[in-house]
Design goal:
The protein is an alpha/beta fold and 136 residues long. It has seven helices and five strands; from the N terminus they run βααβααβααββα. The protein has a single domain (3-131), classed as 3-Layer(aba) Sandwich (Rossmann fold), CATH 3.40.50. It has a five-stranded parallel sheet. Helix 5 (74-86) packs across helix 6 (94-106). The longest helix is centred in the first third of the chain and has 13 residues, at 37-49.
Length: 136
């Protein structure tokens, strides 16, 4: 069983039961699923912006608890700095750089719906999932 890092959009699709969740779910089954500490922050940001109440926030906390959360570390911080430097001519969002740094620091594949956000990052394995089934 391998370990995968999920981008925030994938966690969001799964959490909301979005139609794309059915496309990604088969590619995630049988793997250990991790998320970056940054994904936790992004999920809470989205919840607070949407005005979620205590019940939905509790459900979010429960959902986050189903993943292995990778915390920041010196290694992740080093990778973040390197990635931001590598992508200085084609900037990468701070949030995405943290997620990429988390995956690269641990040598784990990243599953995202937005692979272009993570393109041209040397040493980062971005899994590409065919979306043909999502179109039908």
């Amino acid at each position: 069983m391998s370990t995968l890092v999920l981008d925030t959009n994938i966690v969001s699709y799964l959490m909301r039961g979005h139609r794309l969740a059915t496309t990604y779910r088969p590619h995630l089954e049988g793997h250990s699923l991790t998320i970056s500490f940054m994904t936790v922050g992004e999920l809470y940001e989205g919840a607070y912006r949407a005005g979620w109440g205590p019940r939905r926030l509790s459900k979010l906390k429960e959902t986050i608890g189903t993943y292995i959360v990778i915390p920041f570390s010196i290694e992740v911080c080093q990778e973040w700095g390197a990635i931001r430097c590598e992508r200085r001519t084609r900037t990468i969002a701070v949030d995405d750089a943290w997620i990429a740094a988390t995956a690269r620091a641990y040598g784990l594949p990243l599953v995202t719906h937005n692979p272009r956000d993570f393109s041209n990052i040397e040493g980062l394995n971005v899994l590409r999932v065919s979306l043909e089934s999502a179109r039908s």
